[in-house]
Each structure stands twice: as structure tokens, then as C-alpha cells.
Specification:
CATH topology of the largest domain: D-Maltodextrin-Binding Protein, domain 2
Number of strands: 11
Helix content: 40-55%
Number of domains: 2
Distance between the termini: 49 Å
Order of helices and strands: HEHEHEHEEHEHEHEHEEHEHHH
CATH class of the largest domain: Alpha Beta
Strand content: 15-25%
Amino acid sequence: MRRLRYILAASLAAALALSFGACKKAEEAGTGEGLSGKIQVKGSDTLLMVSQRWAEAFMDQNPDAVVQVTGGGSGVGIKALIEGTTDVANASRPIKDEEREEARAKGVEVNEVAVAVDGICFIVNAANPLTELTVGRLGDIYRGKAKDWSAFGGAGKIMCYGRQSTSGTYDFVKKHVLNKDDYRADIQEMQGNALLCDSVARDANGIAYVGYGYAAKRDDVKILAIKKDDASGAVKPTYEAVGSMEYPISRYLFCYIDGKPGGVTRAFLAFALSDEGQALVEEVEYVRLPEARLGESRAAVE
């Protein structure tokens, strides 16, 4: 009898150990009942749509974990990370040197994780006859040097729409299209890609820049093909052209965190970088990371 009790006790201990180990592995993998807690994800409106999809799928797999996703712009997200009010900062541009310095002064160790690839689309009203532009001529429009569609075979005053100054897309376009020059004074700044698409759809003379995922499925706006210069061919922001960076205005999208993540933050980012998470990137019309960059990002969160 005593021997039987010993065997039962040993079996129970082994079963508990196996159960704990399974829960621990599930927590580390980002799935299972062992994972719980709440994190904030804040920043880029370009990444908002795919981050919401990641959060929904992740929480379906982890019922005790909560991921709250909000937009506001890349600068807002990075500022929140520095101030300690978000766990993950979404950004559609690389972090600036002065932001890194501010973070370092606050004791924040900025860790950059690329999560997807995007092409910035320039869109016009569906009735506009224009089909392509060079990067240089786009710069002329957004600086205010070119103010009328007659310079491009059309008619009417050009109405420029763009993002607010806290947006990573605003900064990216200023750097890569305007060569760091100022935007024209009469640009209509808006918060969010959907608003920009809606505005151009209603305005026969409008032009705007938006993330590829927001324009690809709309038939009430026209996506322009872009030429790097006069000697180059025009390239449309297709999945293949953006992924290969052949499209002249392609870019990586990032999540920024403080140091090496743990718990729900680590599991959420691991999910975003998993095959399932990258499939969701494709579903919302962005481009999954190339394998080499995907490996670097996975190492950054392990």
C-alpha cells in the first residue's frame, strides 16, 4: 500500500511538471492558456490596419491576453514609447537620431523591429487623365512649384492633400520626394489614409499620398505609376515591385520597443513575424518581409 501511494505521488508530480512545462512553452510561443496580460500598441496610421488584424488573431489564440491598438502617427507612437505610455510604437519611418537621444536620456533602449514592407502610393481622382509622374515632378507639386494640372495635360488648380506633421509618411515623403524642402503652404493636412482617399475620390483636382494597403482595393481613385527620373521606366506599386524595392517609393514599416521584450509584448511581436502574421500582412495589401530581413526581426524579439 505504501509503495502504491509512492508511485501515485511520483506520477502526480511528473504530470504537474509536464503540465507546467507545456504552459511555459505555450507562453513562450505566444499561444495557450499560460499567456495573460495587456499591452498598448500605438503610432503609425499606416500600420493601424494590419496591427488591428494581428491583435484580433493573437487574442483569439490567447484569450487572457489583451492588445490595445491606436493610431495617431509615428511620432506620437515613438513619443509614447519614450514616455513609457506604450509597449510597442508603430512607425512608418525609421526613428530619428534626436528621438534616440531623447530615449537614451530617459533610460529607454530602443529596439527596432521591421515588420512589413509598404509602397507609398500617389493617388489622383479616377477622372484625372494622368497616369504617371517622376519623383521630381511630384516634388514640384508638393513644394508648390507646379500649381495647375495644365502642366501635366489636364486642367484646373492642383489640390494637394497630405498627412499631418506627426505622421511617419509625412516625414518620409518630405525626405524622399521633396528632398527635405518644405511642403506648399496650402496643402490640406489630414489624419489618416482613409480620409485622404475619400478626399481625392470627391475632388476632381486632388492628389494625395497614402499607404499601398489603403488604395489598392479602391476603384474611385487612380494610383499613379512613378518614375525615378526621366530616364527610368514608370513603375506601379504592385506587390512584386514594392517587395523588390523596384518601386521608387518603397519602405520598411517598423515596431519599436524598449530593449528585449517579454511576456505578451514578445509573444505579440513573434506572432506578427510568424508565417500566420506575415500572411495577414499580405491580406491587407502590404508586402511580407524578405526572408533575410525577417530573420533579423525574429532575432530582435527572441
